[in-house]
Amino acid sequence: MELLMDNLKTVLAERQKIKGENLSLIFSIIGTLVFAFFVSRVSFFYYMYPCGVALVTLLMSREKGNIYVLPVILLSLLTNQKVGYPLWGDLLAVGVCGVFFFFWKKNWLSLSKRAMFAAGITIIIKVVYGLNSQVFYLYDGVKIGGEGLLILFFTHIFARMFTLMEENTSKQKSTAENIATVTIVALVFVAGAFPSLIFELSPVYIGALLLSIMIGYKLGIMEGAVCGVVGGLMIMGLANGMPSISGILACGGMTAGVLRREHRILCALGFMGVCLCFGVLRGNPDLYMAVYEPVLAGAIFVLIPSRILQKVDLLLAKVGRPGARYELVAKKQMKAKLKNYYDTFQYLSLAYGKSRGEARLRSAENSRQVMACQFRGMAKAVGGMMEEIETVGQGERLIPKVVRYSVQRGVSTYAKAEGISGDSYLCTEFRPGEYMMVLSDGMGKGKKAAEESALTVNTLHYLMKAGFDAELALKIINSILLVKSTEEIFSTVDLALLNLYTGRMKLFKIGGAATFIKRGNEVDMIKVSALPIGIIDQIPIESLEVTLRKGDQIILVSDGITEADRGELGLLWLKEAIAGIKSTDPQTAADLIINKAVERCGIRERDDMTVIVTTIL
Predict the structure, then answer these.
(1) How far is CA 172 from the centre of its chain?
(2) Per-residue H/E/C for 222-273
(3) Which of 97, 186, 262, 557 has fewest C-beta within 10 Å?
(4) E-state strands within 391-463
(5) pLDDT tens digits, 356-414
(6) What is the pTM of this model?
(7) pLDDT in tens, 424-448
(8) Backbone angles phi, psi at 531, to 5 degrees
(9) Do 297 and 206 form a contact (C-beta atoms < 8 A)?
């Protein structure tokens, strides 16, 4: 039965994991297909369709499985049949490139050489098709040569965009290149996704204007100017715009950068004013751009909700100066730290604000110890925060660490009195990559013991989440318990801190029962003789470190388990019981240990029992 339940839980967990991975893959495929469809149907100067060939060349260089985009690209080109331009040469070029690179050795040629092959294939096919289907002029040859150059260009632009979408920021290049890449890809997508005109307004114009004001306002003067120049060039190719559009958009982006410290409304007004003023300097009634396009772009910029604009900050900072993103990340970390400090001391003020008068008279020394520990803890936490900000400034924190381990836990409990257990526990990732398992056994029974142990566990969690180290947090809790009451109230503490990056575990045992580590069929027992917390003023706090592997199990138990059998065998029965469990499911193991302890107690009155089993994955 045990093995059956174990297998069932394992199958369900695996199915859940596979389901999540499948959903992520499905969304990725859908996003790629949508992007490929709209981008591939875009024409430059009315007659050039380079994006389909460039995209299929790039995707096939990354993974041959991306061949699934080929039919979508061909379909997107067919949607342009009404333009009156013969597209069969472009369709044939895309199909031949896709099939050619599918059977090509993956790592034989670099991306640049692949792009040259694709451009050459396209030029040859279109020249042959043109010679056989119509009168072939010199102008037609120039167009085909220009399309080959655009294929080279967009292959590298799309490659740059894929790199920007990846998390590894160490591969990022210059700010100007990143901004140019984002502007080009965004406007090409807009041109493919929307009609050329909507109520006499050009979506490409509006998109270029919106990007210029957004990047200038968020990143600065030079960044806004770069976006404007590139946006103007794209308007020339996508919407037959005048060359002067680049200058107008560059001036608008620079204006947005100058006004970036002002309110969004003022920035939008300045941007619209500059674009409209330069737009009427042509000297005749015809304008360089419609009056309503800059106005609409400015209105959209003003009406973007603040919560969405905050997300845009991080996205734009990734393509902007590295320091801009570091500043945003450091600010976010600072706010999170300060929020932890606020929550911690708010909790402490509520939890320990009501001490009995007699306790105050006898605990002045302990109160001073609490304050001293708090100040030391705040100093260490602030010092750690300063180190983090310094590291962020150097760009190191943005390279993500690889989490090599994960955990799966199971908990089983038995309450002695009134259905209320005096044991309290908590298992959580209190900081990124740091997982804590804490078990506290409150002295006594029932509600009173439960309150004391819960107070110990919750206080420990808040302090460590705020940045206090474990030793200092335990000393603060010890002093507070001495101050809190005249009665002899104390708790045991088993605290295990697991580093999910390295697999190292640090174990603190303050009066707790034995802890067990199971690896395969071998079981090691860790037992430390120490007084519970809250008995003496200067409590000695020691720890030991253990390096864990995947598959290892950490078993924390309260003394109700270890004292279930006080015979001559001592704890040998418990080690044998743990070693004899064949299930790898932590919940199954916890339930079996509880059942075994209850059997060992026999007819004797049972104490509160708690078992926490954590499996390293």
Answers:
(1) 18
(2) HHHHHHHHHHHHHHHHHHCCCCHHHHHHHHHHHHHHHCCCCCHHHHHHHHHH
(3) 262
(4) 407-414, 423-431, 434-442
(5) 444 444 455 555 555 555 555 565 665 555 555 555 444 444 445 678 899 999 999 88
(6) 0.55
(7) 899 999 888 899 999 988 776 667 7
(8) -75, 150
(9) yes
